[in-house]
Amino acid sequence: MDAEAKRSVLRMFTYGLYALTVPDGQRGHAATVNWVTQASFDPPLVAASVEKNSRSIGLIREHRVFAINVYRGDQKELAGQLGRRYANRPDKFLAVPWSTDVTGAPLLAEALGYVECRVTSEVDAGDSVIFVAEIVGAGARGNDKPLTMEAAGFRHSG
Description:
Elements: H1 3-10, E1 18-22, E2 29-33, E3 36-40, E4 45-51, H2 55-63, E5 65-70, H3 76-82, E6 98-99, E7 107-108, E8 113-125, E9 128-140, H4 149-152
Antiparallel strand pairs: 1-2, 1-5, 3-4, 4-9, 5-8, 6-7, 8-9
């Protein structure tokens, strides 16, 4: 396989950026993710890919819930902040305003919208795990453009 061609084509894929949030005591936990997709209309399912070496994966498995918060187009800095590894910056979520609703997963006060999800299954996917989850709550908070990988200047190595 031509590794450079593979990398080039994978960088052509379009991705949004999202805050995946999970309960973690009184402080909550968040990570920036981009491999998220709607998986079914009925029942309403989403799929989210989470790196195996992330702190989020253990919390998702413990609580069996998460929320996907859609970043606004001007929230590149927040996406970068929440995207830092917990081991390097355990306080990354402290100054971020949030509340909870159905699942107890943090819902970012300034996100465009969110879906709250209960995990129904998981699939091993190389260096990640894909969680499939049913949407059990949702809220829309604006109609701005969402943040994308391209607009943020983030990219995968492919």
